[in-house]
Every structure is written in C-alpha cells, then in structure tokens.
Write a structure and sequence with these properties.
Elements: E1 2-6, H1 11-23, E2 27-31, H2 41-46, E3 54-57, E4 60-63, H3 65-75, H4 86-114, H5 125-143, H6 156-162, H7 179-188, H8 192-197, H9 201-206, H10 208-218
The protein binds glutathione.
Length: 220
C-alpha cells in the first residue's frame, strides 16, 4: 500500500492529500510533527532534504509534491486531472508553477509576520499585496467564467491553487476584488476531499510556534 508521509497543516502536503482522496486510492498516512522527526536518519533515507510530503510506493520513493502529483496521475489515470489539449496542459503547468514559484514565496513574509517574526523592511506590505493581486489577476484571466481554471474539468492546477488560497485568509489576504476566484474557491471547498483536509483555525493558531521555529532555522 502507498505510504504518505505528511503534516496535515502544510499546503505542500495538502495538494497530495487531496489528490489521493480524489483518486480514491488506499494509502497509509504517516504524520510527521516537523518538530525534529523530519531529521530521523530513517526518514532522511527517504527524503534527504528533510521535507514533507514523501510518497513511498513499495520500492519507489517520490519526493517533491508536484512530482508526486504527476506520479499519482500516471499510476492511477482515472479520474484524470490532466487535460489532453496542448494549450490546456501548458496553462495547467504555468498555473502550478506560478503558485509554487510566485504565490508561495510572495506570501512568505506575511506568514512570518503572523507567526511573530519581525517584518522585513525590504519587503513592504503594500508591495506584497500588489504582487498577490497580480497573481490573482493571472489566475482569474484563465478562470474567466469557466467552472475550473484551465478546462471544463478539474485539473492539477485547481488542486494546487485551490489548496493554497484558502490558507491566505489567515494572512489577511482577501479575495473580495476577485469574485470569480472566490466563487471557484468556495465550490472546491464543497468537495469531500477539501472538507476532509481543511485545517481547523485552532490547529493553525496552535502551529504558529512550530512554524516560527522552522522559519527561524531556515534563515540561519
Ligand atoms: N518543494 C517541496 C517543498 C516541501 C517543503 O518545504 N515542506 C516543508 C513543510 S511545508 C518541510 O517539510 N519543512 C521541514 C523542514 O524544512 O525541515 C514540495 O513541494 O514538496
């Protein structure tokens, strides 16, 4: 059976968790606290970068959440979350990479602030919010009046963006100027996979000290 090493509050984990539930595959869940257990020698043999998520499928180990999504998509093709059309595939990948390479790094200073780390004077809040608006405009351009971001059906792009955006409210990022994005997000959140993996506000708040410790270690 698949073994899924993860931490429920992590957005990097959640996209894989949602995918496993959407595919309805059986898996064993191994929860890491990230309070040192990610450095266990046994875990480091699976993931030398001491990160979650990690997926183990018998003798094959996959790290990096986007690679895990691709692996699951290839191994369990039904239901499919990859379009067939070249432009749609290109759009799906763009949206996935914009999320991990633009949205997550841009919102990191907001997370740092929420967990109580000092504000970086080189990254004023106004500029961060402007950049987030640019990213939301980008998503909304592809969403238009469609039910999903890149096609009539849900794709990996919806899973990747749709598991990050709901966490941004904890960083005071609002969707009020992006009503289509807001409606799309609310629709995704009605799905069982989103509801089962939705972090509880009290768990998020309780995790701030742990996130602060991880972010402090990273910047040293
Ligand atoms: N690019 C990786 C990022 C994984 C990642 O940064 N995971 C964080 C939690 S969100 C982690 O495991 N941090 C623990 C550590 O760095 O020791 C992916 O998408 O899987």
């Amino acid at each position: 059976m698949l073994k899924f090493y993860h931490t429920p509050l992590s957005v990097n984990s959640r996209r894989v968790w949602v995918m496993l539930l959407e595919k309805q595959v059986e898996f064993e869940e191994i929860v890491l606290s990230l309070q040192g257990d990610q450095f266990d020698p046994e875990y480091l043999t699976l993931n030398p970068f001491h990160h979650i998520p990690t997926l183990v499928d018998d003798d094959f180990t996959v790290i990096e959440s986007l690679a895990i999504l691709d692996y699951l998509e290839a191994k369990y093709p039904t239901p499919s979350f990859t379009p067939k059309n070249a432009k749609q595939i290109g759009t799906m990948r763009m949206v996935e990479f914009v999320t991990v390479n633009e949205l997550l790094p841009t919102s990191l200073p907001l997370l740092k602030q929420v967990v109580g780390l000092p504000e970086d004077p080189n990254q004023p809040l106004e500029k961060i919010h402007q950049k987030i608006t640019t990213i939301f405009d980008f998503y909304q351009k592809y969403l238009g009046e469609n039910p999903y971001l890149v096609s009539e059906e849900m794709t990996l792009a919806d899973i990747v963006v749709g598991t990050v955006i709901p966490t941004l409210k904890y960083m005071n990022v609002s969707l009020e100027n992006h009503p289509q994005l807001q409606a799309w997000c609310e629709r995704l959140m009605l799905r069982e996979s989103w509801q089962k993996t939705e972090p509880q506000p009290e768990d998020i708040q309780a995790s701030y000290a742990r996130i602060k410790a991880i972010l402090t270690q990273k910047s040293q």
